[in-house]
Amino acid sequence: MAAVPSSMMLTALLVILPIVAVFLVKQNQDGKTKRPPRLDETIPFVSNLWQFMTNKRLFITRARAALETSPVVRCRLGPLDLHLLRGGAHASVMFRANCHSDPWILRIMQSAGYMPSDIAKLSHDDSGSGSTPRPGSLAAAAGIPLDQRVWHALHRLYDDAMVSAKATDAFADLFQHLFHDQLVTPVVGREWTEDVHIFDLLKRTMTTAATHATLGPLIMDVNPGFVDAFWQYERHVETLAFGLPDWLNRPAVRARARFSDMCRRWYEVADRAYDWDAAAAGEGADWEPVFGSSLSRGLARWAKAFGFKAESMGPVFILLLFGLHANTIPVCTWVVMELIKDPDLLQAVKKEIATAEITPDNSASTSKIFDHRKLASLPLLQSVYTEVLRLHVGVLITRTCTEPVTVAGYTLPKGSILQAPTEVGHLDECVWSTPEHPASDFWAYRHVREKETRDETTGQMSKRLEFSLAGRSASFFPFGGGIGMCPGRNFAKPEVLLAAAMVVSRFEIEHVAWLKPNGSVSDRPAQNDANYANSVAAAPDREMKVRWRRVR
Ligand code: HEM
Questions:
Q1: Mutational test site, ligand 1, from 129, 486, 536, max ligand atoms within 8 Å of CB
Q2: Whole domain around residue 321: which residue ranges?
Q3: Where, by residue number, does the polypeptide cross the bilayer (predicted)?
Q4: Residue among 380, 377, 328 at smallest CA distance from 488
């Protein structure tokens, strides 16, 4: 997601400032209770918002510095009065049932283009996603049945079709088959291929395979240029989330319209082709070629059940696709890049992943190649995945509390907005560093420890690695936490590990150069692209050019 141009921001600020002034007066009337310190601003009520919109990287750096001196810091961001929380136990307060993320999810839905009448339905339902309606909500007062609560229905779908073991296994098995078809099958000979660009390659192959596994093949059949349209939309999602008027944000609005039209076109074809009556009678398959997975069909059913407008169907699916690809593919790219950069690490990981192969000697088979559950339990591979998430995922986890909450001795009133920047926890030197490996460095072995075990029959002692986040898990929350935690986490891990395992086990790879966005050679490796600061997974700002040949 690209940064927002300054001229656009200036105009937006001029619109926002009068609203801010009203809040300023209101806020000056409080101050009787003990309040956490504030994040400094050169121009009160303006500087933070300006910096947040134009240079999030710097904003987060300042927030991190302030949180070193106090576990809670107040921060005004335009009309919003926020409380920033340090990671660890302080952030876990916001993962309790009395904090929710509905307003933030609603804002994302709005920025994806949901129709106002559908947004109204969602904002009218204040009962939350849990099976018991939130105390004091309309649903609690009126006894509205579970199936009429729109947030609850959405989260139940997430649990059944994304979080459950059945859904995860179905996705992982199909994904690896389709990814093999994308990546490995087309490479017939064993000769070297020059000029392979890792990020670009994974964007094309993973987007195609994961879209097919989740929404079926039809969406790409009816929409030539689908994959490019997705990545063009992805660059603008952050700008769209700021909610600027369309006339100030034309390239983003155009990219969204193009991709959203593709999703709607497919939905209309699929809706006509799918036998909803047979499915209602219990004849629906787990996966079928019209809608694809139960997740995709369930989302269509959810939107229909709540009477969403046809114009909202594109946005419903662009958000699913954004969730599916926008973080997983950069994360996988970082994993693959780290392995290629370090030949010793690559050898150690290849040895580990060989133990998770199901058909090691049958290179012609494109069906299940890896046991994805075994892959996900390999200590060193898990450590690499964790290290990539720690260093390349940055997001302000946001919650609104429905009751007063106490954090580090401060009592924050009901309705307070709490934000925990993952970077504060993820880069905390006290938690992660060792004398040789500061928290800011990638160190593949940071999350493993050696364990001595005795063979019961021979009595011989041997050492093996064991993955462990013991004592540090509170400072690691790349998927958020509590009721709003990312429901796609169980799709993300097998997808990333399967794709990375397939790349490194099927190809011999030599690193050639790092490339700048203009294609010229860079004298440094990739770093997090500053345009993606705090947009969940950061894309690499340099492409990795390699040469490779198929070995299996
Ligand atoms: C490495 C990959 C991923 C990362 C780092 C990631 C991270 C996140 C984070 C930080 C949140 C907000 C959580 C919170 O507020 O506590 C979130 C929400 C969400 N993610 Fe993911 N995600 C990833 C992959 C996926 C995938 C593969 C999908 C879909 C298949 C997905 C679907 C979603 C959805 C639908 C939400 C909103 C949930 C809600 O309505 O509350 N994510 N993700």
A1: 486
A2: 153-187+201-392+482-507
A3: 6-25, 316-337
A4: 328
For residues 274 and 213, give the distance between their C-alpha atoms in angstroms, rounded to a whole number: 17
Residue 297 near residue 291 (C-beta atoms within 8 A): yes
Residue 53: C-alpha distances to residues 12, 245, 343, 345 (Å): 10, 15, 40, 39
Residue 205: the pLDDT is 98
pLDDT of residue 21: 46
CA-nearest of 478, 487, 437, 497 to 172 is: 497
Name every protein residue with a CB atom under 6 angstroms from any ligand 1 atom: 101, 105, 162, 323-324, 327-328, 331, 393, 395, 397, 478-481, 484-488, 491-492, 536-537
pLDDT of residue 313: 98
Cα distance from N-terminal residue to C-terminal residue, the chain: 36
- What percent of the chain shows pLDDT beyond 90? 72
Q: Quote the number of domains for the chain.
A: 1
Tell me if 206 is assigned to some domain. yes
Per-residue pLDDT at 299 exceeds 70: yes
Q: Which atom of ligand 1 is nearest to the CA of 397?
A: 15
Report the separation in Å between the CA atom of 61 and the middle of ligand 1, taken as the mean of its atom positions.
Answer: 24
Q: Is residue 550 part of a domain?
A: no
Q: Which two tokens stand for residue 457?
A: 């029959």
- 38 burial level (CB within 10 Å; 0-12, 13-18, 19+): middle
Point out the ligand 1 atom lying closest to the alpha carbon of residue 154.
40
* Ligand 1 centroid – CA 35 distance (Å): 32
- Model confidence at 2, in pLDDT bands (50, 70, 90)? very low
Residue 261 alpha carbon to ligand 1 centre in Å: 23
Q: Which atom of ligand 1 is nearest to the CA of 482?
A: 16
Find the CATH number of the domain harbouring 232.
1.10.630.10
Structure confidence at residue 234 (pLDDT): 97
What residue owns the CA closest to ligand 1's atom 36? Answer: 486
Cβ contact 450:122 at 8 Å: no
- Kindly give the distance from the C-alpha atom of residue 475 to the centroid of ligand 1, in angstroms, as a whole number: 18
**For residue 487, how far is its CA from the centre of ligand 1 (angstroms)?**
6
At residue 233, what is the residue type? Y
CA of 492 relative to ligand 1 center, distance in Å: 9
- Which residue do the tokens 């770093």 mark? 527
Q: Tell me the binding residues for heme.
A: 486
Q: Which of 188, 246, 210, 460 is nearest to 326 (CA)?
A: 210
User: Which residue's CA is the nearest one to ligand 1's atom 9?
Assistant: 479
- ipTM > 0.90? yes
Decide if 278 is inside a domain.
yes
Residue 287 lies in a domain: yes
Residue 115: left (phi > 0), alpha (psi -120 to 50), or beta? beta
pLDDT at 7 over 80: no
Which atom of ligand 1 lies nearest, measured to the CA of 495?
Answer: 27
Q: How far apart are CA 269 and CA 104, in angstroms?
A: 31
374 with 356: CB under 8 angstroms? yes
Higher-scoring residue by pLDDT: 65, 29: 65
List pLDDT tens digits, range 361-411. Answer: 555 555 568 999 999 999 999 999 999 999 999 999 999 999 999 999 999
